[in-house]
Amino acid sequence: MANYTAADVKKLRDSTGAGMLDCKNALVESDGDYDKAVEYLRVKGQKGVAKRESRTTSQGAVAAHTEAGVGVLIELDCETDFVSKGEKFATLLQQVLDQAVAVKAADVDSLLKSELADGRTVQGLLDDGNASIGEKIELRAVARLEAPAVASYLHRTSPDLPPQVGVLFGASGESDVVRDIAMHIAALPPKFLTRDQVPADVVENERRVAEATAREEGKPEGALPKIVEGRVSGFFKENALVEQKFAKDQGKTVQKVLDEAGITAVGFYRFRVGV
């Protein structure tokens, strides 16, 4: 019989998060050797991770860090809201965010491949989290924004869940409205910063749809050009940030708010868990 005690099982459970029976089996298979038992559980956990690859991650949380004109935003997903509310998931989220800040990550792939102080990659950290928590954990998105002023905003879609909507907004200078606009982006998500950033094929498609709709409605042929341009303009007002009506003052556009503050918009990112 393997030489281990109840205290050994507890120690292994506390350090790995594995179930009691799994810890007992690991100690049996490892003849009571703690380090070998940890390795045994990791190997078993990796097999479990492979089985979870096809599962859907529709829950999770966002996290952000801003400092000295740099903002970092990440989205870490899991399978259930129960896990997303847990301490282990919160710890993983913070570890990944800290690493993203440290290595100046701007995309998922580079962050997953980066090495932590203990020699593991972020992917390895998440694989261990998969094994410990028992759910698929997936780094869904990473963004890095640099500007003279950067604000973040995290929004809870439910009071009992962690933030599931995250925004970074960068502007040309400091102002109280920078965070207000970040909040606006969370509430009224734009797709583009300005109309100039809308791809030409998207604009052309909007024109085609607007014209077809107007014809279907029986609008006069001579009025079609004006109607089409009006509807395309409406598309810009809904989807280009600076042309949207400001959430806190519908009498102003975001551009007007920026002009009054004497600053310009530089860029933004918006993540929503499960979207």
TrEMBL record:
A single GO CC term, please? cytoplasm
The answer to whether keyword Protein biosynthesis applies is yes
SUPFAM superfamilies linked to this entry:
Elongation factor Ts (EF-Ts), dimerisation domain (SSF54713), UBA-like (SSF46934)
Q: Which PROSITE patterns match?
A: EF_TS_1
Region (Involved in Mg(2+) ion dislocation from EF-Tu) residue ranges read 80-83
Q: Which CDD domains match?
A: UBA_EF-Ts (cd14275)
Instruction: Give its localization.
Output: Cytoplasm
Q: Which UniProt keywords apply?
A: Cytoplasm, Elongation factor, Protein biosynthesis
Looking at the record, the residues that make up the Translation elongation factor EFTs/EF1B dimerisation domain are 71-274
GO terms (molecular function) for this protein are:
translation elongation factor activity
Q: Which family does it belong to?
A: Belongs to the EF-Ts family.
Q: Any idea what job this protein has?
A: Associates with the EF-Tu.GDP complex and induces the exchange of GDP to GTP. It remains bound to the aminoacyl-tRNA.EF-Tu.GTP complex up to the GTP hydrolysis stage on the ribosome.
Report what the protein is called.
Elongation factor Ts
Q: Which taxonomic lineage is given here?
A: Bacteria, Bacillati, Actinomycetota, Actinomycetes, Kineosporiales
Q: Which gene encodes it?
A: tsf
